[in-house]
Write a structure and sequence with these properties.
Shape: globular
Order of helices and strands: EHEHHEEEEEHEEHEHEEEEEEEEH
CATH architecture: Beta Barrel
Strand content: 25-35%
Largest sheet: 8 strands, mixed
Number of strands: 18
CATH class: Mainly Beta
Distance between the termini: 25 Å
Oligomer: single chain
CATH topology: Thrombin, subunit H
Structural class: alpha+beta
Amino acid sequence: MRRRSHSANLLVAGPLAALACLAVAALACPLASGASLRLHAGPGTSAGSARAEAARVARYWTPARMHSARPLETLGRRRRAAKASFAPIPDASVPPYAVNGRIFIRQGRQRSYCSGTAIDSPTRRLVLTAGHCVNSGPRGRRGSSVWSRFLQFVPAYSDGLAPFGAFVARRGAVYAPRQWVRWGNPTYDIGALLTLPNADGQNVADAVGGGAAIVTNRSRRQEFQTFGYPGKTRRLQGCDSPYVGDDSRTYRLPGRPTMAIRCHWTPGASGGGWLIEAGAAINGLTSYGRRRDRAHTYSPYFDRSNVGRLVAGL
């Protein structure tokens, strides 16, 4: 989970220009729902170059580089150890755990990782994660953002093993909402990527047994099974919790307020799925924590205007 402070004590990925709007009663920032069209990293790959793209990324992620990758949020910073509330999953390759995995990325010059979920979608190639895992969000005085590169999803990753193979993100098919990329609004901290088939020619949803269905506009009062790869752990971890409230500091931001669970996820778990219905559906994901709060983690509320618009047609 990306954790940076601002005057309101909200810890999220990147300096959020949207939070400057909290001082403006009318919220005049240009974050209306009409601006929620998804953005992507650049030109896509043709069918003829897709295989070469997969090979290029696979060559980049050698076992040594995968082993040396660090949680995205800890890059260049030291943090005090915190008590965690998650526990290891004995066998990540069986349902409902198999849809969860680690996403290896390169953001700027750093080799990093986040967590993600294989999705039951029409293309069978969709993976969902946090927005800040695919795009840094605005940072620095100019508020520019950086797209992640060399993205590779490894479902059920466990101690260096990849029971279902690796799924490389197709260049030009990595997406995040405009509200995240340009303004860093945490209620839109959601990312999506379309992956190429694994070495056996399988699409990711088929390889893991179907994928989790994205559901939107549900009651917040759910019992969540949440998953991720926090810190230096090399095996999938899990934490179960009901919804325990909203982050009141997001009430004045455009979009629905973010929601909390009583699980303290640590860096590296960003993008990990919040599953419901015995793991058949995903209704949230690990986005951020707050300073001095070592008991909760927050997710965007999944509705049609954020995740629904982001994954439409994917």
